[in-house]
Records
---
Amino acid sequence: MNASSTRLLIAPSLLAADFARLAEETKAVEAAGADWLHLDVMDGHFVPNITFGPLVVKALRKHTTMPMDVHLMIAPVDPYIAAFAEAGADNISVHPESGPHLHRTLQLIRSLGKKAGVVLNPATPVEAIVHVMDLLDIIMVMTVNPGFGGQAFIASQLRKIATLRRMIDETGRDIILQIDGGITPATAPQVLEMGADCLIAGTAVFGAPDYAKAISALRVARPKEQPEFAVNAG
Ligand code: DX5
Ligand code: ZN
């Protein structure tokens, strides 16, 4: 059974939460039915914004049982992987552009017992990961340029998502296909149709008055087995 036939995962992005109340916000989305907590780490260098580091991940670890899905937007990335692993990250995802040796970075994440992910920016081609598929647990497609929440969904990425779905299915492995950026009840069905497994949503969850309703609104009907869809769309 591959990931496309399992339950849709919803990962609220803490970037849109109230930073003065991170523990409460984390517990609130967990109670509201979130599957994973997405944590955006930004350094003001790889992306034009600064958020938080491993100390905040560690502080939140004791407030939730949700898997912590850490998205590193920092360069260089390798010197900080161990710190995020020790802080309690379950998944650690990196951009190919954030270091000279993606294969080595993914090996490092795996060697620390964590799920390894790669993140593709809107302009990054799928070819960037063809030769590291065996080291991947997660592929994240950016449907905005990384750095900020609340940006508009970039529809040109839909074809890329479909292509990646096909590439994952060809491996026969349970690689989770995540989508990050501009996810709303309007865009969610589009990415699900292309074969996404996990939706990351900041503004659509933390910007809503009722987190449970907001999460339910993203759990739209998911296409079952449709082996031909990826061929048509890719
Ligand atoms: C952007 C981050 C996203 C961000 C998404 O660099 O990687 O996770 O929080 O925010 P929304 O859902 O508001 O587009
Ligand atoms: Zn993110």
---
Amino acid sequence: MSLQIKHLLGLKDVSREDITAILDSADHFAEVLNRDIKTVPTLRGKTVVNFFYENSTRTRISFEMAEKRLSASPLNFSTSGSSVSKGETLRDTIQNIEAMKIDMVVVRHGSAGVPKFLTECTDATIINAGDGYHEHPTQALLDMMTIRQRLGKLEGLKVAIVGDILHSRVARSNAWGMKTMGMDVTLCAPTTLLPQHTESLGVKVTTKLNDAISDADVVMLLRPQLERQTHGLFPSVREYRTYYGIDRDKMNLMRDDALIMHPGPINRGVELESEVADCERSVILDQVTNGVATRMAVLYLLGGGEQ
Ligand code: CP
């Protein structure tokens, strides 16, 4: 059985069956990645363009690694050094690249909706690697893979997502995906960093850190995205850290077995102290490891592979 979706634009409209299929396939690829020979011939002959209009470390490298592990041919596009600097439009840019015969596009862009726009001007399969404040679906999938790997299930688990929810595509994708998988999600931030109309996400919302974290199975921290904030949304970094940053004392308010997660990049000493980021309950580097297997699963299943 292949996926019901043709493109991966976000998790809002992805079914529980499709998310489960991706997570099961990612578990299989994680096992492949533990072998001596980590490459499989699955996507041999397919060309995947990594179309990045925004900076990235984890997402970009793990997509490229996933493509190489599946024997696809990756092509990397970035705006610096391209004809975007001469004023070429997004539509012209993608249509010129498509004219060279490509199969899939992995796109990151600062504007919400760009992945959807690309589906309207190319025939290639589109995978969203983060669009503005909108969604970052492969991050949420690798987060759920990591939780399922550690805790053995998703259904019924309590997750607290703490930080700059307003600007976070990671929070949005996780809220949609985790709700679909039957998880109990609480978003926690100062009022100025919470979006309006959170009721449409179907999650709980609080401004009180203790209410969010005290009985959570998973606590996911998000950095304040200062590059997306047009004016001061909290009085100072020091005040943010005092109320929402997790240090050893605040970690002691959590359950002893709660997992600590972060999508990266971490602002050490702001949302997370190093002693917490690097402690035995942190699965932050597991998330990065699982990013390759998750992206292999998405590329494989959208590239025509069967479960
Ligand atoms: N988590 C994440 O998207 O990291 P990058 O911005 O480094 O890709």
